[in-house]
Amino acid sequence: MKALVCVKRVIDYNVKPRVKADGSGVDLANVKMSMNPFDEIAVEEAIRLKEKGVVTEIVAVSVGPQKAQETLRTALAMGADRAVLVLCEDEVEPLAVAKIIAGLANEEAPGLIITGKQAIDDDSNQVGQMVAALLGRPQGTFANEISVEGDAIVVKREIDGGLQTVRLALPAVVTTDLRLNEPRYASLPNIMKAKSKPLATKAPADYGVDVAPRLKTLKVTEPPVRSAGIKVADVDALVAKLKEMGVA
Amino acid sequence: MSKVLVLVEHDNASVKDATLAAVTAASQLGEVTALVAGASCDAAAQAAAQIAGVAKVLKADDAAYANALAENVAPLVAGLMADYDAFVAPATTTGKNIAPRVAALLDVMQVSEILSVEGPKTFTRPIYAGNAIATVESSDAKLVITVRGTAFAKAEATGGSASVEDVTATADSGLSTFVSAEIAKSERPELTSAKIIVSGGRALKDAATFEAIITPLADKLGAGIGASRAAVDAGFVPNDYQVGQTGKIVAPEVYIAVGISGAIQHLAGMKDSKTIIAINKDDDAPIFQVADIGLVGDLFTLVPELTGKL
Ligand SMILES: Cc1cc2nc3c(=O)[nH]c(=O)nc-3n(C[C@H](O)[C@H](O)[C@H](O)COP(=O)(O)OP(=O)(O)OC[C@H]3O[C@@H](n4cnc5c(N)ncnc54)[C@H](O)[C@@H]3O)c2cc1C
Ligand SMILES: Nc1ncnc2c1ncn2[C@@H]1O[C@H](COP(=O)(O)O)[C@@H](O)[C@H]1O
């Protein structure tokens, strides 16, 4: 079974995002960029399935600028077999990304598509569910644990009240949550090897997708800042504060 | 006037609180119809009919909807949307699972986790872990929206008297089946509606220590219990305790962070709390930048002392 894994190049999770002074967006110039953390988990899960003999080939795909090649090379260094960059210098919305992924899936016929549950820049939490809808296939979102059993995949999902387990007919889409696995680091020899792995470049038009945005961003602002607080010297002072607030 | 369909989150018997904030947001867009899709869900439909601001309830009662599987609920909603201008769901794990599937079926770009309604098609929403707020305007013919529960007042759960209408179920998709659920039953207030929350972080060492330090304080205050990702990953508490960008978003009256450093992903989930109290041994911990009241020191002596003095 082939696995298709979606990876997005995003601001590194350790960097504090800054809003541009003109309110047009977040400043990404000279900011460290990395693979979306949930997508690292997606790549790792595909590799583990390959190590178990369930998956035979891992194709990593990214929709993004030329620089997203670096993200795909990281996926290849971790253990993906080949990569596809769907080149688009401007930001692409989740719906259009999903259409491109669905188009690619129609070409590649993967048994499993793995995406992150959420990109940490747009915080949309949409692409996986949309891909599943467009392909008419089931979705195992927010996966905590998965196991392939014949022509089905059992997905334990992280939900508000705890955990839910569902059984999905393959092909299926899975979106990763934090506890699914702990991604490996690419070793130096594997980073070198990844340089010669195949990386194809495509365009949205190859999948007949119009990437014109549906949402217009009117402005981007800083969230309200909290006014500075105080430090209390000891527990008695804290208890007094709590009493003042009517909490204790 | 716009017609808005709201997804009711329920357990077939009662309506979950998150629905009430979604109703408030939906009311700002137009006339609200509440959709109760479930199995033997009449009690939930009757409860939805009581919510102030709900004009009508649609009840889709079928075994296929017993566990709110997106593969079954999304086609039902997409079909009903022929008569509506907007679909609104709470930004819970159920809403987040279903709404994008509806959006794709309708060829609509969803607006996720709105914080406010600025106009008929204009909304604010958090991006980059809440470090920026975007104002976005949709150009789609129909709207698909999820609503951040902490950003809207809850509609009154009673006082309404909507009619309940049955709608024909769509067929079971046959794509997915429910196997089981592990839902912890607790007497404690739910995180997203708790007035006070005590949260513990990596500093709590292990599950037994977390329980021994955090639980007595939470009990004294009648508080809900939350945690950082580090505490969840390390197995101190179950996954549904996680507060943050990719966990639960909370905004209680009082949030007490114990042994939590205050990473941006954690702050994203709790910085709208009314009063934030932090206990941390590191004077420079980022959590103190958002805390109204900070107490610097060793939590293993300070927290038991605090619990004792309350
Ligand atoms: C994609 C992604 C999503 C994430 N989502 C979330 C999320 O939703 N929620 C979330 O919380 N995190 C999330 N994180 C993780 C986040 O980046 C931090 O790693 C995490 O919040 C740290 O948890 P912590 O504060 O408990 O641990 P640490 O950062 O290790 O902090 C422990 C704190 O305890 C203090 N301490 C230690 N001993 C004592 C003592 N005896 N007395 C008092 N204080 C003490 C230390 O001074 C320190 O400040 C996410 C990360 C990624 C990459
Ligand atoms: N531009 C992109 N290229 C490849 N995958 C993407 C892209 N955008 C989103 N994804 C995938 O979809 C997931 C959810 O993204 P989002 O719906 O934007 O929050 C991410 O974790 C990725 O796996």
Automatic annotation (TrEMBL), chain A:
Similarity section: Belongs to the ETF beta-subunit/FixA family.
Cofactor(s) demanded: AMP
Domain Electron transfer flavoprotein alpha/beta-subunit N-terminal: 23-211
Taxonomic lineage from the root: Bacteria, Pseudomonadati, Pseudomonadota, Alphaproteobacteria, Sphingomonadales
Function according to Swiss-Prot or TrEMBL: The electron transfer flavoprotein serves as a specific electron acceptor for other dehydrogenases. It transfers the electrons to the main respiratory chain via ETF-ubiquinone oxidoreductase (ETF dehydrogenase).
Pfam families named in the record: ETF
Alphabetized Gene3D superfamilies for the sequence: HUPs
UniProt-recorded name of the protein: Electron transfer flavoprotein subunit beta
Keyword entries, A-Z: Electron transport, Transport
Quaternary structure annotation from Swiss-Prot or TrEMBL: Heterodimer of an alpha and a beta subunit.
Membrane-spanning segments: none
Superkingdom of origin organism: Bacteria
Entries under PANTHER family matching the protein: ELECTRON TRANSFER FLAVOPROTEIN BETA-SUBUNIT (PTHR21294), ELECTRON TRANSFER FLAVOPROTEIN SUBUNIT BETA (PTHR21294:SF8)
SUPFAM superfamilies named in the record: Adenine nucleotide alpha hydrolases-like
InterPro entries per the UniProt record, alphabetical: ET-Flavoprotein_bsu_CS, ETF_a/b_N, ETF_b, ETF_beta_N, Rossmann-like_a/b/a_fold
A GO biological-process term: carboxylic acid catabolic process
MF-aspect GO terms: electron transfer activity
From TrEMBL, chain B:
GO molecular function, one term: flavin adenine dinucleotide binding
Keyword Cell inner membrane set for record: no
The keyword Flavoprotein belongs to this UniProt entry's keyword annotation: yes
Cofactor binding mode and count: Binds 1 FAD per dimer.
One GO BP: fatty acid beta-oxidation using acyl-CoA dehydrogenase
UniProt KW keywords: Electron transport, FAD, Flavoprotein, Transport
UniProt domain Electron transfer flavoprotein alpha/beta-subunit N-terminal: residue ranges: 4-182
Domain of life, source organism: Bacteria
Pfam family, any one: ETF_alpha
Binding site for FAD: 202, 228-229, 242-246, 259-266, 280
Co-factor(s): FAD
Family named by the database record: Belongs to the ETF alpha-subunit/FixB family.
Assembly behavior: Heterodimer of an alpha and a beta subunit.
Name of protein: Electron transfer flavoprotein subunit alpha
Species this protein is from: Novosphingobium hassiacum
